[in-house]
Specification:
The chain is mainly β and 194 residues long. The chain is 8% helix and 44% strand. Pfam families: PRC_RimM (PF24986), RimM (PF01782).
Length: 194
């Protein structure tokens, strides 16, 4: 039984991306404090509909606000102090907001804002792309991106001698020649023995 009656059961869209979670209630009018997974959470501001899924791990214990996945319409998202807060249509009071603590927030990739610069990419769009060097040698597939402060690093996985291996390549123009999302390929100035 759901504690928040206005939540609408809905499947995750096929292009859903997990972008954060609900931390706690904020105030008495149903607002929630958010924990975005990105330092630039533009998608949270841009999307008018979010999908919530029950929490996992340490946040899952005692969670009974809803079962499965639900869709919520977003009324407001704003910066407050060093974080973000949001008001969701179906969440009218502090008790309802508190019951959502730990819920995971998903947004359809199609609802992300467009990037201003053609050389800017959402990390989620790079995951799974093949990486080849200028000589056409396959270096691996992007498994993750790792922030290192001044720039991100591509984390590739590849097979060698029957074992999965990891290769790191800085995601900077000195090493990355081109990102071709249509071809699902990144071309780099990098050698297999680096």
């Amino acid at each position: 039984m759901a504690l928040v009656p206005g939540l609408s059961p809905a499947p995750l869209p096929p292009d859903a991306v997990e972008v954060g979670r609900i931390q706690e209630a904020w105030g008495i009018k149903g607002w929630v404090r958010l924990h975005p997974y990105s330092a630039a959470p533009d998608a949270l501001f841009h999307a008018s509909r979010w999908y919530l899924a029950p929490p996992e791990g340490r946040y899952a214990r005692g969670f009974d606000a809803f079962v499965g996945t639900v869709a919520v319409d977003v009324q407001h998202v704003k910066v407050h102090g060093d974080g973000l807060v949001a008001q969701l249509d179906a969440v009218a009071d502090r008790n309802a907001a508190e019951s959502l603590k730990g819920a995971r927030i998903f947004i359809a990739r199609a609802d992300f804002p467009e990037t201003d610069d053609p050389d800017e990419f959402y990390w989620v769009d790079l995951i799974g792309l093949s990486v080849v060097n200028r000589q056409g040698v396959m270096l691996g597939t992007v498994r993750d991106l790792m922030p290192t402060g001044p720039h991100a690093v591509l984390v590739l996985e590849y097979e060698a001698e029957g074992q999965m291996q990891e290769r790191l390549i800085p995601f900077v123009s000195a090493y990355v020649d081109a990102v071709d999302q249509a071809a699902r390929r990144i071309t780099v100035d990098w050698q297999p023995d680096y």
